[in-house]
Design a protein that fits this description.
By secondary structure, this protein is an all-beta fold. 2% of the residues lie in helices and 42% in strands. The chain has a 4-stranded antiparallel beta sheet with strand order 3-2-1-30, with no helix packed on it. The chain has a 4-stranded antiparallel beta sheet with strand order 4-5-6-7, with no helix packed on it. A 4-stranded antiparallel beta sheet has the order 10-11-12-13. It starts with 6 loop residues before the first strand and ends with a strand.
Length: 362
């Protein structure tokens, strides 16, 4: 069973904001890094350490941790590319954005991963006090010439999945390149894009160049992977070897950024759809959450408690999370919604927040 989680952590345009369960509701608890964009947060399930990735407008990318649940914070050095590393000939590589954060396996309590723009995967073996670029991925023959930015200037690693059964088994999602898999802790990589579709490429079935907006797995059945892709919704039942298109051709569940999967049931997943990449607003000006209970064969659209007129909200890729029957998501217009019945109805936690980049139960 999933343990009930009583704190909700938000990375926002104006800081890290937390809400706490208070009886049957949720109340604002505190804020950290006020005024500074917090692109992503993470709480290490092994150590309890809180992590915050800052996108400081003047000072660049910063990384902080807290061992007292946000009462105080300490900065550590952000990942950096080795001196002389180039994105392409003549262009020096520098970290533009901290876009993914993942902890290693339970058998490796000091192992952490960070994904960046441009597409660097960094690993720490000392609980975040230092990071090294995984050069096998950076030097993958597909990177130069086949990886490119999707809505940003450079390709970025926004998804990192560590197999809970095997700390050496990793998946990453890259926009735009696709899904890559490693069985040896990142020493070598296999491309896992078979079955995906990239409508924007001359060859939609190209081996590399796909845009998985978010890649997730079912924690208790990790052979099942899901991705909300630029070109639809895809699911794999065999660890990414083949992807099935489970887009709702007759409904709104097509384009979007976020996807969440039930922790125990790999057939149950949620997405928050939007109108195409060019527009990026709620479908028909009405916000809805779509859930499938049968692996994407059918989708149900839930709207109760969500705005249904003149709605411009969308949900960024890390801004939807679930724990048990409870889901929460934050939007680009600072709305925070929560459901206690697997998304079938929603309540508003706040209408007055900054743009929300990430949402996580802790």
């Amino acid at each position: 069973m999933t343990t009930q989680k009583n704190t909700l952590m938000l990375g926002t345009r104006k800081g890290l904001i937390t809400f706490e369960r208070n009886g049957n509701g949720w109340a604002h608890k505190n804020a950290s890094f006020l005024g500074i964009p917090v692109s992503l947060t993470h709480v290490d399930s092994r150590t309890g350490t809180w992590w915050a990735c800052l996108d400081h407008g003047h000072w660049g990318q910063k990384l902080h941790f807290s061992n007292d649940q946000g009462a105080s914070w300490e900065e550590v050095a952000s990942p950096k590319f080795p001196e002389g590393t180039e994105v392409k000939p003549g262009e020096v590589a520098s970290v533009k954005y901290l876009w993914a954060f993942a902890e290693g396996g339970s058998d490796r309590p000091e192992e952490l991963y960070i994904g960046t723009e441009p597409g660097g995967l960094f690993k720490s073996s000392d609980n975040g006090h230092s990071f090294e670029l995984i050069e096998s991925l950076w030097n993958h023959p597909s990177r130069e010439g086949h990886w490119f930015g999707g809505g940003r200037d450079y390709p970025g690693i926004h998804s990192i999945v560590v197999d809970p059964r095997d700390s050496q088994h990793l998946y990453i999602g890259i926009s735009c390149a696709g899904v890559f898999e490693s069985y040896d802790g990142g020493n070598s990589w296999e491309i896992r894009n078979q079955g995906l579709r990239a409508d924007y490429l001359p060859d939609p079935q190209a081996e590399v160049g796909h845009d998985p907006h978010l890649l997730v797995t079912c924690p208790n059945q990790p052979n099942y992977l899901w991705q909300q892709n630029h070109c639809g919704i895809f699911r794999s039942m065999n660890g990414g070897e083949l992807w099935d298109d489970v887009t709702d051709v007759d409904g709104p569940a097509k384009f979007g950024f976020a996807v969440a999967v039930d922790h125990n049931n790999p057939e149950q997943a949620w997405v928050v759809p939007a109108v195409s990449d060019e527009v990026r607003v709620a479908v028909d000006g009405a916000l809805c959450v779509c859930r499938t209970d049968d692996g994407g064969a059918t989708w149900n659209n839930f709207r109760e408690g969500l705005p249904q007129q003149n709605c411009y909200d969308i949900v960024f890729r890390h801004a939807l999370d679930n724990t048990g029957d409870t889901l929460a998501f934050g939007t680009t217009t600072g709305n925070l919604f929560l459901s206690n019945n697997k998304g079938e109805s929603w309540e508003t936690i706040s209408h007055n927040l900054p743009m929300i980049y990430s949402t996580a139960f802790i």
